[in-house]
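Risk mitigation, structural track. In case the binding assays with acetyl coenzyme *A fail to produce interpretable data, a predicted complex structure has been prepared as a fallback.
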Amino acid sequence: MTDIEVGPATDPERFLRTDTVVWFQEMLAAPAETQLLGLPADQRFAAEVDGADETAYPGIYGVYPLELAVPGDRLVPCAGLTWVGVHPDHRRRGVLTAMLRHHFEQVRDTPGTHVSALHASEPAIYGRYGYGLASVELTVTLSRGTTLTAPGLEEQAGTVTTRLATVTDADVARRMYDCHRAVVDAGAVVGAPEFYERVCLQFPEWLRDKEPWRILFARRDGRDAGFAMFRRTPKWDDARPAGTVEVHFLVGEPAVRLALLRRLVDLDLIGSVRLRSGSADDLVVAWAGGPRATAGVETYDGLWVRVVDLPAAFAARTWSAPCDVVVEVADRHAPWNDGTWRIRADADGAAVAERTVADADLRLPVEALGSAYLGGGNLAALARAGLAQEARPGAAAELWRAMRTDVPPAGSMMF
Ligand SMILES: CC(=O)SCCNC(=O)CCNC(=O)[C@H](O)C(C)(C)COP(=O)(O)OP(=O)(O)OC[C@H]1O[C@@H](n2cnc3c(N)ncnc32)[C@H](O)[C@@H]1OP(=O)(O)O
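Fallback model:
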């Protein structure tokens, strides 16, 4: 096998050339640092291989510094793995494997950060590296004028007004960041302020004939209370307006989201509204009156979570029920997690994981723990499916009851 060295990517132009060839996209005209906005210089990494072409790195990856909302209304630091790409000349020779090993070591050595998370380009890639699917994401399409019923929220929704802005308007990125950070459900991720500046970038090559992204702010008591980010695409069917609205963020408390959605399904000249990043039990489906009352519900994988430092990650979230389970964890790529742990949670929601020589009640791969980390991946169902092995009957359900949450994890914004 070729020697692969992973370290800082110090040449932004070379980084972007790799990205462009990996994703077969056109080169953007904007300066490299503008294109990389939001990806801190010390969070850009590259793989070098002897004899590689000097113009592009053989492999690249980057990390957005994110905060992840974990059970118990806590925001914890999270390494947002992104910009992963291996040059077509170097694929299937272990470059990704070397980069992910490097990433896990970096995260392990970063004080306060214990988990990594990502959105996968393809579902088959990341499970083998210990990422578990932590949330299921719904894309919900609503027809224009869909009635959204929520008697318990009417009074609050009635106090919300909405006001349209464009991402290029002054201060929009900061307002988005403030709103997003103020109201997050477990499962959601929040970026650093620069991340929202990135979201607001409008490269001409991306824009072409498209509408610039609009931000519909919700206002209550003279302050921002949430927002929706959307763009419309005009369409006409037999001379009837049938434009589509694509919504990428819907942020705020439930009553605020309801008010924003009511405005979106009432926009002129549209036929449908497509909402990304819904949770498995999304409020929108309930407000519409069930899946058949929508114009379509599609299910995708949401956030993939990788527990990098097992005991620290477990201590960072709140647990839902007491448990005392001995778990044998298989972890090839972060060997410091590999082995047997006694996991105990108390009635106050605190958990401790300690090394033990006791016999395991349950054997599972580390990705199963990533899957359950946000309260979503059902470990008892996993055991039934033969993807975790119980030595003590009921051990998987015991651990699951302690990790699960009342509602499924929220959808995560794309990063
Ligand atoms: C978080 C994000 O940024 S998601 C974006 C990921 N990037 C992309 O999809 C861009 C296009 N694809 C690529 O750049 C590359 O194909 C990558 C990054 C997916 C894989 O890089 P490679 O260096 O080829 O992977 P590597 O050689 O380390 O492969 C490791 C293993 O994963 C497997 N694997 C790699 N890619 C895939 C895939 N797309 N589907 C299924 N298995 C895969 C390999 O077969 C190999 O298996 P093995 O260990 O059993 O032999």
